[in-house]
Design brief:
It is a single chain. The chain is of the alpha+beta class and about 230 residues long. It folds into two domains: about 1-80, no CATH class; about 90-225, no CATH class. It has seven helices and six strands, in the order H-H-H-H-E-H-E-E-E-H-E-H-E. The chain has helices at about 1-20, 30-35, 40-50, 55-80, 105, 180-185, 210, and strands at about 90-95, 115-120, 155-160, 165-170, 190-195, 220. The chain starts with a helix and ends in a 10-residue tail after the last strand. It binds iron/sulfur cluster (3 copies).
Length: about 230
Amino acid sequence: MRLQHFCEKSSLWFFASFSITPFRGTSPLSEAVEKGILSASYLLFCHMSMETTTRRSLLKTCCRTGIAAGLLGFVGVLGAKKKIDPSTPVWQINPEKCTNCGACAHQCNKTVSAVKCFHDFAMCGYCDLCTGFFDPQPFTRDEGAENQQCPVDAFLRTEVEPPYFEYKIDHDLCVGCGICTDGCSKLGNGSLFLQISLKECLQCNQCQIALHCPTKAIEQIPAGQAYKLRAE
Ligand code: SF4
Ligand code: SF4
Ligand code: SF4
């Protein structure tokens, strides 16, 4: 029982310390894993192989871990937002001037552009046939790769209830190419738009994309006014 107790506590702290950036490396267990002394899979195996560990206790541990990680993550996000003074100038795209030319994907100082597709959910029609998501001539209206416009599988489509669908963007994959935002602007209502992600942007003294933007759509505005949405 003491070993079971140790495993439950250690796995909870291990997952929390690995999920939240400020806590990384502060746990002896996570340090041991990083140094190769322990492996994550060993900890999981240790936890699951205990004869006295019931399915219910495992579920309870997972729930506790998820809640703890979620709360700490939420606090972390709030903390990260507070760090930016609202008066600090930041580079942002004015959606009213952007023509989705595609230069944002290639001109950024970062290898993977800091420009991402954002979605104004208040404007979205939750369309079945989303002109940002689907190829103009889809074979079928489903999530098959051959029917999608996004070249990196960053555009996610989930059915809410027939005939409505929710669309989300995975910013870890999005490269800011503007294909989906172009489709939405031309044939939809423009709820998808390109924007510089404050989380990703280096805030260069001179934004390289701003130098190349053909419509001068990139401007410096106070951080408190970001992000500019179409309706604003
Ligand atoms: S370079 Fe300018 S017009 Fe082209 S996608 Fe970027 S912000 Fe839009
Ligand atoms: S099509 Fe381009 S801009 Fe749209 S989500 Fe995919 S990578 Fe991002
Ligand atoms: S300020 Fe720098 S990192 Fe940010 S979008 Fe412009 S070039 Fe990219």
